[in-house]
Amino acid sequence: MIDLHCHILPALDDGALDLEDSLAMARVAAADGIETIAATPHIRHDHDVRIPQLPGRVQELNEAIDRNGLPLRVVTGGEVAETALDGLDQEALRAISLAGRGWILLEPRPGPLGDSLLDAVDHLTDRGFRALIAHPERHPSGDLRERLRQLIRRGALVQATAAYLISGSAREGMLMLAERGLIHVLASDAHSSHGGRPARISPGLEALKQVEALRPHLNWIAAQAPAAILRGEPLEPPYAPSG
Fold first, then answer.
1. pLDDT band at residue 174 using 50, 70 and 90 as cut-offs
2. Residue 239 placed within a domain
3. Per the confidence metrics, is the pTM higher than 0.90?
4. Domain CATH code at residue 14
5. 237 within some domain
C-alpha cells in the first residue's frame, strides 16, 4: 500500500515532533503493510516550511529508516493550501508535487468547497500539474457531492482519510461518497505516533469492502492509483461518479 498524505517529517510543521516520533510512525505504517509514504508538510502561510530543504529532510529520514531496518520508503511532497498557490512558482510546485512528478496534494480553503477550488484545479492544469483533493470530510455541505463531481470532471482525484471511514461523525458521509464513486485513494493524514490518526490505511480499506461499487477496486485504490500518481501518470478511474 501507498500513503500519499502523511506529516512524517520531524520537527517541521504540526506533524512528527522529532526523529523518534517519525520512526514510530514509520513502524506503525510498515506493520500496516504500507511500503511508501509521501511526506506532505503543510505548504501554507502559518507553517515555515522551506521547500528547498525538503529533499534533504526526506533523505535524512530514509537513512534513519534504513538504519532501523524498516521496509519503508519516504518520498517528497507537500500538502499545498489552495490559498498558497499564487505564491508558488513553477519550480516550487514541481518540488512539492508528490514524488516530484506533477500531482499536487491540494488542501481546500476552510469551509464548503467553492468555485475558487475549481479555479485552482484549472490553474494547476494550465501550469502542467494535476490535483489530488485532500480530505473532503472536512468540508461538509449540501452540495459537496456535486462539487466533487465538478472537480473530477476537471481531471482531479479525491483523497479520503482512512480513519474517517471507520468511526466518528464523518463516517456515514464518507461511505456515501464512496458509494457514489467520489473517493479514489485513501491516506492516513497521520501527524504523530503520540495521538490522533495513526499511520494506517488498511482499516479504511476494510470499511470500503461494504461498498459494493468499490469492492472490486480496492487494490486500485490502495496501490495502483497511488503508484501511478507517484510516477506522474494521468489516471482514469475504473469507476465513474454516480448520482
1. very high
2. no
3. yes
4. 3.20.20.140
5. no
